[in-house]
Amino acid sequence: MNKPLRLFWRTNHEITARELRVIGADGKQIGIMSTLEALKLAKEAKLDLVEITAKANPPIAKVVDYSKFRYREEKKLKAQTKKNKGGELKEIRFSPFIAENDYQTRLERVREFLAQRNKVRLVVVFKGRQLGSKRFGYELLNRVNKELGENISIDSEPKFFGRHLATVISPRLNIKKQNNNGENQNQEINNKTL
Fold it and tell me: What mean pLDDT do residues 12-21 have?
């Protein structure tokens, strides 16, 4: 479940600055004036005075309908977070002696995560006497890496953390570029740089 976005702007009498650079309801700059004058202007227009940039000198405030302003800002933030989606760290767990069907199911899930541009932590969980067969964990992770082929880059080599053998992989993106002759070239970019 997504957390609700929480944005905060000082409005009307919450504004503590003595002077403000005021922008009108039409989006045009009115100028620098005292906070009391700006509040009077907003009240005459039956709108709110919203401080949009507190760190500027003097702070910038806008005469707007606060509920509409907040709705637009939250909508922008949601759109921006949608664009930035990807790059999360997902985890897939294996056992060292996993059945073939379970292996294929998990491998397909890894491919889905990589297609969404997420990093994937592959974890082999050892229980009880299985710790005596650590090489099977390494072989399993090598098999996954071979089956995924050149579509991935290994961010961290397999290491043991207690009873877990873990590695992190990320997708490699192929971007087609045209060289000077107009021919397409494939250029690989590692996800670490994105």
Answer: 85
Residue 101 corresponds to which tokens in the numbers above? 């069907």
**φ and ψ at residue 82, rounded to 5 degrees:** -65, -40
Angle CA(109)–CA(111)–CA(112) in degrees, nearest 5? 65
Q: What is the chain's mean pLDDT, rounded?
A: 80
| Residue 114, CB-side half-sphere exposure with 13 Å CA sphere | 26
What does the domain layout of the chain look like in residue ranges?
A: 12-83, 89-193
CATH number for the segment(s) 12-83: 3.10.20.80
CA dist list (Å): 79 to 26, 72, 88, 127: 24, 11, 17, 44
Q: What is the pLDDT of residue 7?
A: 62
Q: What pLDDT is attached to residue 2?
A: 46
Q: Of 164, 148, 155, 158, whose CA–CA distance to 191 is shortest?
A: 155
Q: How many residues does the chain have?
A: 194
Longest Cα–Cα distance in the chain: 80
Task: Please give the DSSP secondary-structure letter assigned to residue 182.
Answer: S
Q: Which helix (H) or strand (E) holds 171?
A: strand 164-178
- The CATH architecture of the domain made up of 89-193 is 2-Layer Sandwich (3.30)
Contact 46, 5 (CB under 8 A): no
Residue with tokens 């609700």: 4
Contact call for residues 16 and 10 (beta carbons, < 8 A) = yes
